[in-house]
Amino acid sequence: MKVMVAILLVLNIPVAFTKMLPSFSILQKMYLGDKNYGGIYNRLNVEEYLFPEDSGELKFYPNATCILRMSAVLNVTTERNGSKKGLKGYHYFYERAPLLEYLKEEFGKPIVSNNTAVFRGQVGIMFVDIKDGDDSKDCSVLLWDGNGFHQAKGVLKHKNFISAQLWPAPTDGCVIDVNVEKSGGGICFPSKAKVEVRSGKKIPISELAIGDTVKTFSRGGEVVFSHVVTFLDQAPDHKGHYYTITTEDYIKLTLSEAHLVFEFRPLSAKLGGNTFRSVHASQIKPGDYILVHVPTYHAPIARKVMSVSTAERFGAFAPVTQEGTMIVDGVWVSCYADIVDHDLADSLMSPLKSFYNMAPQTLGARGLNVHRYLKQVLRPIGLRILGKEKFYQGPEGEETAGKDNTITSVYHQNI
């Protein structure tokens, strides 16, 4: 059944490898912000910076610098109509129509609405289309930060307003939120989280690389080492809120709230075994049991949770192993988040893992566009097909999550 659902989800994705914009933090850093709105560049500064060899000879119309500012974040390498070659050999647009055409060619059709309020909480490049009049000539292609325009002035409402068009940009730090009600969380571990590689050395997850093998458990409960095939996120400069789950024997696991961990659940004697299920980290509470690795045992061991706390931590890393699981800071965890069902998430990633195995260093290390697409496209499609109860809805929305994703196990735990 889960395989069929995975196939259905994949078939509903319109273009699996659509190119995505760089992350929004990168766009912000590259954007030549207006000096009047928190940036450091006025009109002349922009022209002199982008075309140093033509300084003093440029005669762009004032509003053309708005288009130039946006061009600076795109790294256009080929000549286009309405563009000019400048700094570092890149081409910069000074006309709006060619810029919009380029965005559509490179990043697909934008999300369109006749109300900018629809885009609250989303980020990316926005075109505000106003019919005729002087306002239609104002700066209209801008960076949208989820609440307003980044270091620029733009029109949010107008009597001749036609539409707002947004090309979404991914956010850093494992953010899942794609403007779906109550969604949020992340899929990462902080930089200092540790994994064990085949040599027996425990290293920070920030030092892990494509092709390394990390300790985990197989589906049969045996200790194995599994290759890292890709990363869903790598953001060493990210600072975010993480949950720390501490067991009664002081094993501490720190991870983002929507990441999946395995909760142990005793079964009745007549079933002859125990069960575990995947749950979001924010769902774990004192008194629950999670599955840990103890060197003297060859299978996962259940340990009682003593406390759950939150604090800010640096870094955001989300490796994916061939096995789909790993042992982080001594705790057995899934490589996935958001979708509450680990097996379903692993089924969805299986084709991509096979794809990366063909050329791990090229495809795995550079697979960020695919993963951004999964976060921004797969989630809303999945919500429509499976229903929101299958996805992370925030700590307050976890009442019914994971009720049907129990896995029967013959592990005989010491609890």
Automatic annotation (TrEMBL):
Superkingdom of origin: Eukaryota
Keywords noted in UniProt: Developmental protein, Signal
Coiled coil segments of this chain: none
Stretches assigned to the Hint domain: 186-294
GO molecular function, one term: patched binding
Record carries keyword Signal: yes
One GO cellular component term: extracellular space
Signal sequence residues: 1-18
Pfam family, one: Hint
Stated name of the protein: Hint domain-containing protein
Gene source species: Pocillopora meandrina
